[in-house]
Amino acid sequence: MATRKKVLLKVIILGDSGVGKTSLMGQFVSHRFSNQYKATIGADFLTKEVQIDDRLVTMQIWDTAGQERFQSLGVAFYRGADCCVLVYDVTSANSFNSLDSWRDEFLIQAGPRDPENFPFVVIGNKVDLDNRAIQARKAQNWCTDKSNVPYFETSAKEGINVEKAFETVARNALAREKDIDSTPDFPAPIPLIPNSRPTQPNECPC
Ligand code: G3D
Ligand code: MG
């Protein structure tokens, strides 16, 4: 079997403070749900290797360190993202209403080439709680309107659906990776024009 190149995917997680972004990442990367874990994370990333069909993929997942309260995450956070996970809390209507501005912010800051088809995944988290404020259908409609973004309902606390959501993140980012391979980011290089300066009398003509 031919060796395929290793793939590194940058995934960023956005959403209002408190929706469970850090908890989702902790649950996915190390199957843990704890406060201690959260405290150790800065505006940084964790990696996890996943197998997608016959490909080994390293997911580099970027979390925020609370600056999302001010929507000031800095351009390095967004740069080169292959997938953007938008998270809201199913018990908080405000966090659902913020999805639009998070999506807009991402598109402005990351500036993907094909914004309409950029791979987003939406997660409605905290389904273990019984005081739901947003019905699944409402969130699903929002996602359908935005070029059919995949939608998952999860509980980072109980580990419900987290793996499945991130697998879709990897698959969709990988599909885009294939597009990138066949579409150069930059125009073809301009061929160098040979120096047309005539050779001087004492200069080697080679
Ligand atoms: P953030 O990174 O988006 O700011 P956190 O969110 O991961 O820090 O989580 C915010 C609070 O929500 C935490 O509670 C966390 O334990 C809780 N939380 C996260 N995911 C879930 C979930 O799936 N179910 C429930 N019930 N709670 C969740 P505290 O009390 O530490 O603020
Ligand atoms: Mg956090």
TrEMBL record:
Stretches of the chain forming a coiled coil according to its record: none
Pfam families per the UniProt record, alphabetical: Ras (PF00071)
InterPro entries: P-loop_NTPase (IPR027417), Small_GTP-bd (IPR005225), Small_GTPase (IPR001806)
Ranges of Polar residues composition bias in the record: 196-206
GO molecular function: GTP binding; GTPase activity
UniProt-listed SUPFAM superfamilies: P-loop containing nucleoside triphosphate hydrolases (SSF52540)
Spans traversing the lipid bilayer: none
CDD domains: Rab7
Any GO CC annotation of this UniProt entry: late endosome membrane
Positions of region (Disordered): 178-206
GO biological process: endosome to lysosome transport; phagosome-lysosome fusion
Name by which UniProt lists this protein: Rab7
Membership in a protein family: Belongs to the small GTPase superfamily. Rab family.
Subcellular location: Late endosome membrane
Origin: domain of life: Eukaryota
Keywords annotated in UniProt: GTP-binding, Lipoprotein, Nucleotide-binding, Prenylation
